[in-house]
Amino acid sequence: MPMNAQYRGPIEMPEVIPVFPLPGALLLPRGQMPLNIFEPRYLAMIDDALRDGHRLIGMIQPDPAQAGSTDKPALYAVGCVGRITQLAESGDGRYLIELTGVARFRIVEELHVATLYRQCRVTFAPFADDFVARKGEDKVDREALLGALRAFLSANDLKADWDGIEKAPNEALVNALSMMSPYGTAEKQALLEAPDLKTRAEILVAITEIELAKKNTEGEPQLQ
């Protein structure tokens, strides 16, 4: 989805952003993520993001390997910031929003704030390539990616819009499939932290092949 705002590099990004911890939620640059916002702290976060004018929300996963509390789980170091590009009020107190991914960030420190939602000082410098649309997509092994997708769909008796898939540029295809993938928190984080699009595609293919192998093994009769 095109955005009215143009972000040309890390220098144009804020140093402090609100963060929304959500396990299994993967946002990638130029990807779209719909969200149903109903908790008071996150409703306030949306209001503040709109009021402040930046309209940016940092999506990040809780890190289950680190100690934390139920209300304030430990976070992975890397997330992705998105801009609110659609917002609707439900009529029952919820916001229905869509975030469009801008760039990944690394947490420098979490701040002590008065807001109910969490805020972090972050850096975008390690991910300067995220601001360049379609960078490195010519290096993606598209056939391997489509092969893994076909195998996954067949194994799970699913269908896809192949006409749309065939027309999708490599960046959009890799990132959309990564975001929609049904894999766990660790796998989603690995996809997020991939250094480039080629590597992300390779990780997605490898994870898919591992899951298909598990499915095939589980379906085999057990020796007595």
UniProtKB/TrEMBL annotation:
Transmembrane segments: none annotated. InterPro entries: Lon_prtase_N, Lon_prtase_N_sf, PUA-like_sf. Pfam families: LON_substr_bdg. SMART domains: LON. It comes from the Bacteria. Residues 17-212 form the Lon N-terminal domain. This is Peptidase S16. The lineage of its organism: Bacteria, Pseudomonadati, Pseudomonadota, Alphaproteobacteria, Hyphomicrobiales.
